[in-house]
Specification:
alpha/beta; VC0802-like; Rossmann fold; 2 domains; nine-stranded mixed β-sheet; elongated; binds adenosine-5'-triphosphate; binds magnesium ion; transferase; tRNA-uracil-4 sulfurtransferase activity; ThiI_AANH
């Protein structure tokens, strides 16, 4: 027996009134977009959720697409039955027998919307639960904390039954939070930061700094692959590729000491802000996590962050590496990130980068580098921009929240 419909629950229950309606409308439009290839679907919006008739579409195929819709809290495969006791009992038993994991405990929760149905919900709990029990070995009822809750809705024309609940991506629908620029390296962290930002409703463009020919063409390809994997959540993503080679070699020509990385990062942020402003984006998103490396101590973050005025959003700041890796795996960026191609920042790395840079010293060094503002302008002007469109061959994702 295959599910003939599904129940989609829309997230962010804290929203009320007009905001709630706006939220639901925009999640529904993202859902329709994600499922547009399934032409047989019929959507019936209900309060806080959407009931979808599948027609000839497969639930499993639709579920893969739904995993990528932000604002969707959870969803369930569901089965309809005629409004007759025996049919409902049989359907309930079939659902329980075909669960992916057989539970030890369950309960039945019946909701009677159709008041002309002869048995009330209490009686139906008993009639359906009892029927399943007597046909199943090793299953018991636990009304307080069951492993599986089998829900039965007695609607006007039919009964609707479902037991499995899949977690959706949650968050806010794409684009409802504004637009930002993601600083995307080839590492593990920044793609995760990007995903978390998108999950909060931000639409992203990405910027990547490379030191070609010191870094290889393949390192650039890797970042394109990461952007492609992220584009699965947005359909397409604009990627700005910046050559950082001249800036690195010029700075290195006059300064090689322990503030080198800080100087590079400041140049990077300045370029990113200029590109963001040119593209009409209102924040930078980066993958820093407090204390991870020398450039991510509080004094370093302070010395780097102050060169821009746009807000810098750093979703990983307080997260453990383990948690970041878990998300990277679930969104499919991890296997790409661990490919062994070098990042531009590893070029000319001093033996002990400063963890406590002095801002006055940095500003003095920068003021002696008269070439710097010109090179920054040049890097912005010469940015190469490509649009990356999602392809289904991008690595499959598992569901996360
Ligand atoms: P990641 O895993 O994202 O590379 P990281 O732990 O290696 O992060 P850093 O190398 O200090 O940390 O970089 C901090 C952040 O700066 C990155 O998360 C990213 O947002 C940005 N960044 C670093 N290198 C680049 C680059 N080559 N192009 C674009 N952004 C970069
Ligand atoms: Mg890195």
């Amino acid at each position: 027996m295959k599910p003939d419909c599904m129940i989609l629950r829309l997230g962010e229950l804290t929203l009320k009134g007009r905001n709630r309606r706006k939220f639901e409308k925009s999640v529904l439009s993202q859902i329709r977009k994600a499922l547009s290839e399934f032409t047989s679907l019929r959507y019936i919006p209900e309060y806080g959720r959407v009931y979808v008739e599948l027609g000839d579409a497969s639930y499993e195929d639709a579920a893969i697409k739904l995993q990528k819709v932000f604002g969707l809290a959870s969803f369930s495969p569901a089965f309809t039955a005629p409004l007759e006791l025996e049919a409902i009992q049989e359907t309930a038993l079939t659902i329980m027998k075909h669960l992916r994991k057989q539970p030890a405990t369950f309960k039945v929760s019946v909701r009677r919307v159709n008041k002309s149905f002869p048995y009330d919900s209490q009686k139906m709990n008993y009639l359906v639960g009892g029927y399943v029990l007597q046909a199943s070995h090793g299953l018991t009822v636990d009304v307080h904390d069951p492993e599986v809750e089998l829900r039965v809705e007695l609607r006007e024309e039919k009964a609707l039954l479902y037991a499995e609940v899949e977690e959706g991506a949650g968050g806010f629908p794409l684009g409802t939070g504004g637009r930002a620029l993601l600083l995307l390296s080839g590492g593990i962290d920044s793609p995760v930061a990007g995903w978390l930002a998108m999950r909060k409703g931000l639409e992203l463009e990405a910027i990547h700094f490379h030191s070609y020919p010191y870094t290889s063409e393949r390192a650039k390809e890797k970042v394109i692959d990461l952007a492609r994997q992220l584009s699965g959540y947005t359909h397409s993503i604009k990627l700005h590729l910046v050559s950082f080679t001249d800036i690195q070699t010029s700075i290195h020509g006059v300064y090689k000491d322990n503030l080198f990385v800080t100087l590079l990062r400041r140049a990077m942020y300045r370029i990113a802000e200029k590109v963001a402003e040119r593209e009409g984006l209102s924040a930078l998103v980066t993958g820093e996590s407090l204390g991870q490396v020398a450039s991510q101590t509080l004094p370093s973050l302070n010395a780097i962050g102050r060169v821009v005025t746009l807000p810098i959003l750093q979703p990983l700041m307080m997260m453990d590496k383990k948690e970041i890796v878990r998300i990277a795996e679930s969104i499919g960026t991890f296997p790409i990130s661990i490919l062994p191609y070098e990042d531009c920042c590893t070029l000319f790395l001093p033996p002990s980068p400063s963890t406590n840079p002095n801002i006055r010293v940095i500003e003095k060094i920068e003021s002696s580098m008269e070439f710097l503002p010109g090179l920054i302008e040049q890097a912005v002007m010469q940015t190469e921009t490509i649009r990356i469109v999602y392809e289904d061959k991008a690595i499959a994702t598992q569901h996360l929240f």
